[in-house]
From TrEMBL:
<feature type="domain" description="DUF2062">
    <location>
        <begin position="24"/>
        <end position="176"/>
    </location>
</feature>
<protein>
    <recommendedName>
        <fullName>DUF2062 domain-containing protein</fullName>
    </recommendedName>
</protein>
<keyword id="KW-1133">Transmembrane helix</keyword>
<keyword id="KW-0812">Transmembrane</keyword>
<keyword id="KW-0472">Membrane</keyword>
<feature type="transmembrane region" description="Helical">
    <location>
        <begin position="63"/>
        <end position="86"/>
    </location>
</feature>
<feature type="transmembrane region" description="Helical">
    <location>
        <begin position="144"/>
        <end position="173"/>
    </location>
</feature>
<dbReference type="Pfam" id="PF09835">
    <property type="entry name" value="DUF2062"/>
</dbReference>
<dbReference type="InterPro" id="IPR018639">
    <property type="entry name" value="DUF2062"/>
</dbReference>
Amino acid sequence: MFRKFFKKYLPSHETIRRNRFVALFGERLQHHNLWHLHRRSVAGGFAVGLFTGLIPGSNPVQFFFAALFAVAFKVNLPVAVITTLYSNPFTILPIYVAAYEIGTFVTGGTSNGMPEVGLHLMDKSIGEWGPALIEWVVSLGKPLLVGMFLLALLLSSTGYFAVRAGWRLFAIYEWRKRAKRRRQKNEQNMDEMDGDSG
């Protein structure tokens, strides 16, 4: 089931290899764990994607680092790259708020909430949003950086163990389901044999 799901929604090996950012890795992309769908490689790829999804920058930057870490740790590369998409324009603000609160707690600062966003984006053109947002993020300083790193570690370790546990539970469920079908088939065969002999 898990393998069918991933094969259905993940890009093919060849599509990933043709990507210009991934192509920088060349022959290093030949390791079988980068492409095989088994519990360890998928869980590792998920953890890498969760971690690198918090690296500041656009998706191509996160894709690059996800591919780099996947190759370094020999975990599933497509899973790592796709998982980075959890960090997107719709989710980034809550993620930054959570990271800032974690960072403030760890660094011993006092949190009165995040500094006010002085962007007034409705008054700015789209071209001015980027620099204004970067200026605001920089104003958050050390608490945000520390919080982002700790949140990335927390998400990646939780994701790794959750995928491994989910994969294991699903494998047990499937094994029991097959065993039950075999028992029912054997019982049916025995009943048929008893009927023939009677």
